[in-house]
Amino acid sequence: MLLLQIESLIDGEDNETGVLANVSAALASAMPQFFWTGFYLVNDDELRLGPFQGTVACYHIPYNKGVCGTAWARRETLVVPDVDAFPGHIACSSLSRSEIVVPMFGAAGKVWGVLDIDSKDLSAFDETDKKYLEKVTSLLSKQLGKCFFFNFCCKYENIILILSFGNLILRNMIDVKATLKESEERMEMAAMFLDDQLAKIRAGRANVAILSGVKVSSYGQMVPLNQVASVTVPDARTIAIKPWDRKAIRDIEKAIMASDVGITPENNGEIIRLSIPQPTEERRKELVKQCNKIGEKTKVEVRNVRSEIKEKLKKGIKDGLSEDNEKDAEAELQKLHDKFIKKIDDLLAAKTKEIMTV
Ligand code: SME
In 3-state terms, the chain is what percent helix, strand and coil (to 5)? Predict the structure, then answer.
């Protein structure tokens, strides 16, 4: 009877908040013995409080936490006769003694929210409530356009989709190729950053990269040195800086002295020369250590990308990615990881050689 009422109550309405608010009101007035009747909606990794009737409630419930988060993760209705006996139950209200949580399934069987009803009494819900409330949630998913099969909004929708439409399922699944591409790009960026950092470490050879952070005051603005002068390497131990405008020479000199380049410029009025001092053996070892430290940081970054993407792939299973495909993607990810760790090691080896060569 109430089911028919709910059906006509929501018929033709697509305003999600309004529909959920009215359904919680209808359920609450039909079952006044329950003190909380309402919805939590999936938002990224958590459930967020939605429309409800009853006492104030928590705003956020993490995935797989509490009765609601667990029903979401397990993708099944949970009838909890005694909340105190449910590990990890979230007590938004001390009144709660028993509860029922019904996940709501959308496209590809993905959970988009849960219906939660709480009672002050122990064992207030049974299999009949479960069956009935699952029909209510199915109606809601259908009405709010959450699923592809209008008469069958359920957790198996992904299977039905595969059977019926083959490739269509891919639309709702994680895009493995794009995800792997993203991880490759991020690892590449980390390696590029290392390359850049290593270039700035001075090892006795003249390298214009040591001046890349130097900014010179020019017509009231701070601009990079190479915008006001030509920077060249006439020999392995010298850098020559020739200003486009001779008047700028003092400002350039000042800027170099104020920077962390650590070499005193020689100025002949036209050209500034920097003689690169040859580091001692001890200093060279120090520099190698410095490089390895940055290398280690870069490796951590590459590993972080790997674990983040791994997590994403694992979550993809929930959205319909097959375990076999997930395993293959993980293997690809591992290969990318190994490739960039090797690249980092190669960069470090080359830099070490450069530093230690007298
Ligand atoms: N008890 C629920 C939290 C929501 S409130 O009951 C409204 C849970 O454990 O997930």
Answer: 55, 20, 30
Is position 90 within any domain? yes
Judge if 17 and 140 occupy the same domain. Answer: yes
Cα distance between residue 358 and residue 116, in whole Å: 73
Predicted confidence (pLDDT) per residue in 240-295, tens digit: 999 999 999 999 999 999 998 889 999 999 999 999 888 888 989 999 999 999 99
Domain boundary among 232, 260, 275: 275
| Cβ atoms of residues 88 and 98 within 8 Å | no
Q: What is the pLDDT of residues 133-155, one digit of tens each?
A: 998 998 899 889 886 554 445 56
| Cβ of 116 below 6 Å from ligand 1 | yes
119 and 223 housed in the same domain: no
Question: Is the beta carbon of 24 within 6 A of some atom in ligand 1?
Answer: no
Cβ of 36 below 6 Å from ligand 1: yes
56 C-alpha vs ligand 1 centroid, how far in Å?
11
DSSP string, 16-67: HHHHHHHHHHHHHHH-TTEEEEEEEEEETTEEEEEEEEES---SEEETT-HH
Is ligand 1 within 6 A of the CB of residue 320? Answer: no
Domain, as residue range, for 214? 208-275
